[in-house]
Design brief:
The chain contains 30 helices and 26 strands. The protein is of the alpha/beta class. The strands form 8 sheets. Strands 3-5-6-7-8 form a 5-stranded mixed β-barrel. Strands 10-11-14-9-15 form a 5-stranded parallel β-sheet, sandwiched between helices. A 4-stranded mixed β-sheet has the order 18-19-21-20. A hairpin with a 6-residue loop joins strand 12 and strand 13 (about 525). The chain starts with a strand and ends with a helix.
Length: about 850
């Protein structure tokens, strides 16, 4: 390589044809190699070579369409014996930029001259994803021209002529262009001054700016156009112009306008910052816009105007890691990943994965939190304004605020609101967050059957991402939000794991201070997060998970509470959503009561809100048409006459808008024959009334059960039959000792499409069968619930409040409950307790006496004192 003329490159070089960028002498660029010819060059020349000479290659910039395959290159020859071959070479030259390409169409030798850059490959990295390719890190040495092409396979080999002095790019030179060199010296001085001016406008703390400063002071003036053009923001076309400038004077003339353009752009940005301070950016960020980092192994694509300013800047990312105030364990992991990122080429798949991981780590709120609003009076006022009733939930929130005033380091409680749909569990969680002044985030868990949704995926998997807990923290930006885990009772289970088991660590106050997401693989403190879970029932929640939560029951509303909620919240909201005002529409309270009793039968208020919305839409049509509602389904034809304001919705208008009533009081109508009784059932949707019907025919003493009954309810029916057969003669139910002798019994539970199960129908079945066998009617205003035993005892059951509210909605006046459920009556509203007559029964003879019309005889054939008292 050495010669008397100085350091020389080999006169034969393999050519790397690339359309990814332009390599200038003195710059370092990363190239991705995936075409067969270039792959052969790497594998046969760079990887197998043992000397420094084998690592020197020529880089030819390719400005053709990137979609055209380089391997379409036809056979190249050193000589062209005819004009036809010359024309073929003319076609070949479309692969290269062509300012200096010329062809002489004759029988003489046809030179093919091309300007390129000789470079040394300092790093070679191979990968098979997404397809086989190599990534080369090449440092430019000097310019060369192609004098002839020697061969095309397995890679292109050409004879070249060196155009630049190699020494000036490798070591500081004692000779440099000076002001005495005429026009060239003047251009050199202007270029240097412009470079110094650009540096003065940038932040010297940025590594690339500091490197620019060192290069400006150490390199000879004749190398500055190439070095500066490779660092500032320029397009490939502009770099090609600098590369093609073989003359030093021409090179200065090509590079100086590019430098001046960057200076003008910076001045414009600085003026914009002064005019609009709200959009002010740090000068550090501007430095990254206008300078390309020349760190070894990095090449930034600044051709895209919309690219993020901090997109691939590891220095900026390192500052973010330092300023994130993360724990020592997390900081150690981030620093380790940053070191790997700096050594990793962008084309590798792991680069994007590592960058995404670090971006997530710096965005997590390791130490950011909001200050709680601890004003108890203000909290009570806000909760009362947002929600009517729900005294138990409001009391629990106020208790939390009071304890937080006394102890600032209190861990966040883990609450579980259990109740039927539409009672406001989710909206209460949102109100709690607003009361505390915290951020709110809802996580829907219904149907989730993969534990990775909670814990995240490990980063070894393609498409891995953090779990919903960590992603929610990233979204809210603080470490003490209110997290609402909605529908926690509807979690699934699959081959991908059990998400309910993954929640055990999240919802355990003794463990969640070091929750480890699989994606992060470092501990995150969740102890300050206020978790609120919602569920319709606790039956489907695993016991271990239920044990970690403080369960607060949210029962359904009474009719009076629904009326109040409708006039406080629902009607104003619907008026606003439909563009109406109270001066245009008025719904009286008796109309609201009619909607609740005749058009909705639910524990919550969702259907009620939909019915109110239907009324608003009907009135909006009349208001928009300018017609007068006459409550008979008609409207005056005179469209010029405005409707009377406000439009009052009475029972006639209600029927006209909503149609015929959907629900009627059918209790008294259905209890007109013996063998019918009214029971109370609990469902996840709230309490419901349940009719039990029985009939008998001649037969062989068989029992038939219909109505989609579960095993527990079937067992209750058999228990009732056994008790009646054993006590038929004692209670004078039938004249025969065996009521089933020569008789078949059919028990039916209406609404056969609905599955029914549970032990609480035992007393209802006994009453129904006793009425059937004795021929006496069951009182039409009585409903009952309770589990039975073979000895005739009545055992306690659950869901008392929901069941009693269902009876109250249905117009029942007497409710028979187990004696041991008397304590549950304290949870009922005062107006409900005043409207209903409660009979607390300890055994079945008390149940029969209170439910059968006219009383039921006791074992002795007469009414006992307790039965007389109950009857009175």
């Amino acid at each position: 390589m050495g010669s008397s003329g100085g350091i020389q490159i080999p006169n034969r070089l393999p050519l790397l044809l690339s359309h990814e960028g332009v390599l200038l002498p003195g710059s370092t660029v990363r190239f991705s190699v995936d075409s067969p010819r270039n792959m052969q060059l790497v594998s046969q020349r760079l990887l197998k070579g043992t000397s420094l000479k084998s690592t020197i290659i020529g880089v030819i910039p390719n400005t053709r369409d990137p979609g055209q395959d380089i391997d379409d290159l036809p056979a190249l020859h050193k000589y062209a014996p005819s004009a036809a071959v010359a024309l073929k070479l003319l076609q070949v030259t479309s692969y290269f930029h062509s300012p200096h390409l010329f062809l002489v169409i004759n029988l003489a030798i046809i030179p093919c001259i091309q300007i390129g850059t000789a470079g040394v490959a300092v790093q070679v990295v191979g990968s098979n994803w997404p397809k086989p390719h190599y990534t080369l890190l090449i440092t430019g040495l000097c310019r060369f021209s192609v004098t002839s092409l020697l061969k095309e396979r397995p890679f292109v080999l050409a004879e070249v002529e060196q155009l630049d002095k190699l020494e000036q790019y490798m070591t500081p030179s004692t000779h440099s262009v000076s002001a005495e060199d005429g026009e060239l010296g003047e251009l050199s001085q202007r270029f240097y001054q412009a470079a110094v001016q650009l540096l003065g406008m940038l932040d010297m703390s940025v590594p690339v700016v500091a490197k620019f400063r060192r290069l400006l002071d150490s390199l000879p003036r004749e190398t500055l156009p190439d070095v500066v053009a490779s660092m500032i923001r320029t397009s490939n076309k502009e770099k090609l112009q600098v590369l093609d400038a073989v003359s030093l004077e021409e090179r200065f003339k090509k590079a100086l306008p590019l430098l001046n353009k960057q200076i003008e752009g910076l001045k414009l940005l600085q003026k914009t910052r002064k005019i609009n301070p709200d959009n002010e950016k740090r000068v550090t960020d501007i430095s990254y816009i206008f300078l390309q980092p020349l760190f070894p192994g990095r090449q930034f694509n600044l051709e895209d105007e919309d690219e993020d300013e901090d997109g691939d800047d590891t220095a900026s990312l390192e500052r973010k890691v330092h300023n994130a105030n993360m724990p020592d364990a997390a900081l150690k992991v981030c620093r380790k990943e940053l070191k790997r990122l700096k050594k990793m080429p962008q084309s590798m798949p792991e680069y994007a994965l590592t960058r995404n991981y670090l971006d997530l780590m710096v965005e997590l709120p390791w130490s950011k939190s909001t200050k709680d609003c601890l004003d108890i009076r203000a909290a009570r006022t806000l909760l009362d304004n947002d929600h009517y009733a729900m005294d138990k939930l409001k009391k629990r929130v106020v208790e939390y605020l009071a304890v937080r005033q006394l102890k600032t380091s209190l861990k966040g409680p883990i609450l579980c609101f259990v109740g039927p749909p539409g009672v406001g569990k989710t909206s209460v969680g949102r109100s709690v967050a607003r009361t505390l002044g915290r951020e709110f985030h809802r996580i829907a868990l219904g149907g989730v059957c993969d534990q990775s949704d909670i814990r995240g995926h490990r980063r070894t998997y393609v498409g891995s991402m953090p779990g919903r807990i960590i992603n929610g923290l990233k979204t809210v930006g603080v470490n003490n939000p209110v997290f609402l885990l909605d529908e926690v009772d509807k979690l699934g289970k699959s081959l991908q794991g059990d998400p309910a088991a993954a929640l055990l660590e999240v919802l355990d106050p003794e463990q969640n201070h070091s929750f480890t997401d699989h994606y992060l693989n470092v501990a995150f403190d969740l102890s300050q997060v206020l978790f609120i879970a919602t569920a319709n029932t606790t039956a489907t929640i695993p016991p271990a998970l239920l044990d970690r939560m403080e369960v607060l029951q949210v029962p359904g509303y009474t009719q009076e509470e629904k009326v109040e909620i409708a006039h406080r919240h629902l009607i104003p909201n619907q008026l606003e959503q439909h563009g109406l005002t109270p001066q245009q529409l008025h719904i009286p309270q008796d109309t609201t009561q009619a909607i609740i009793s005749s058009y909705t039968r639910e524990a919550g208020v969702r259907s009620l809100e939909r019915k109110i919305g239907a009324i608003c839409r009907a009135v909006a049509v009349k208001v928009a048409e300018g017609q007068r509602l006459d409550f008979k389904g008609l409207a005056h034809v005179d469209k010029a006459a405005p409707p009377e304001m406000p439009i009052v919705i009475d029972h006639i208008a209600l029927k006209d808008i909503l149609g015929q009533p959907l629900f009627e009081l059918e209790v008294s109508e259905r209890l007109t024959l013996p063998g019918v009784a009214l029971g109370l059932a609990w469902t996840p949707l709230g309490g419901e009334i349940m009719f039990v019907e029985a009939s008998r025919t001649e037969g062989e003493g068989q029992l038939t059960l219909t109505g989609q009954l579960g095993d527990v309810m079937k067992e209750s029916a058999h228990l009732a039959i056994s008790w009646l057969r054993a006590n038929a003669k004692t209670y004078q139910i039938t004249n025969s000792s065996d009521p089933l002798e020569g008789t078949d019994i059919h028990l039916h539970f209406p609404a056969g499409a609905v599955t029914k199960d549970g032990p609480s129908a035992g007393v209802t079945i006994v009453t129904c069968l006793a009425s059937l066998f004795s021929g006496r009617l069951v009182r039409s205003d009585v409903a009952m619930t309770g589990e039975i035993t073979l000895r005739g005892l009545v055992l306690p059951v659950g869901g008392i409040k929901d069941k009693v509210l269902a009876a109250h909605r249905a117009g029942v006046r007497r409710v028979i409950l187990p004696k041991r459920n008397e304590k549950d009556l304290e949870e009922l509203p005062a107006n409900v307790r005043a409207d209903l007559d409660f009979v607390m029964a300890a055994n079945l003879d008390e149940v029969l006496n209170a439910s059968i019309d006219g009383g039921f005889p006791g074992p002795s054939g007469s009414l006992t004192h307790s039965q007389l008292t109950s009857k009175l």
